[in-house]
Specification:
about 260 residues; two-stranded antiparallel sheet; globular; mainly alpha; disordered N terminus; 10 helices; Multidrug-efflux Transporter Regulator, Chain: A, Domain 2
Length: about 260
Amino acid sequence: MTTDITTYTEDAEDADGASAPTLTVDELAARAGVTVRTIRFYSTRGLLPPPVIGPRRVGRYGQDHLSRLALIEELQHQGMTLAAIERYVEHLPADLSAHDLAIHRAVVASWAPDAAEDMGRAELEKRAGRALSGTDLDRLGAMGVIAYDEDADVYRVDGGLLRLGVQLLGVPIAHETILASRTVLLAHARQAAHELSRLFRDEVWGPYRERESDPEHVAAMKSLSAHMQPMVVQALVTAFQRSLKEELREAFDAEG
């Protein structure tokens, strides 16, 4: 799928200046680069709103449908499963315009990590720079570095974590401890992400939505999001490092 919200400018506009639904399901499929069957499937799963029924009971689609298809594409590109995409879409405000959905897509694209890669065991060991035993694979899985797809007989590998994961294989930490640590980290990371997302929505996205629409709106939001990402990540890493250092110091002082 190769949807692009910036190309959907020739649709008719209604009295309020918004894009009116003018596309048949076949035209929507052609514009979005998907099949009609895919569109109908997404509709049954609640990922796309129903079409506007026009003359002769023909369903018509508009820019909001194109934008949602573009957002679904971006989420899939970032490795999200269909179930995860459904949960994501469920939490979107019901009144989002095509423009708002384009902003959502821009934020997702600029904040999401690099997509994981699928590879066989031989390629995985080549990238790791060493042979990997069954225990090694289990530990990498516990760290979230790899996930084995039994049906396809491939490993889904997070390339950004692979090098660090391989280095940690030599550290004498029990498998159960790794799992417990990952659970703790994910829980707190999710909470931090939730709070930051709420702050971004209320303090940044809200004011942008209140402004009049302009051609540079989405580009400005994407640029702002991209500039915020490294600052937020660095702030989280620095805060965690300092907190961990303080906790370890207090623990060892107490032991002494």
